[in-house]
Amino acid sequence: MSQRTSRLRRTAVAAATVGGAAMSLLGAAPAQAASNTTEVYVWATGVNMRSCGSFSCPPYDRIKVSQMTVDAHCQLKGDNVVDGPYANNWWVQVDAGGPRGWISAVYISTGNNWEPIPGVSQNIEDCV
Question: Which terminal residue of the chain, N or C, has fewer Cβ atoms less than 10 Å from its own Cβ?
Answer without folding.
Answer: N
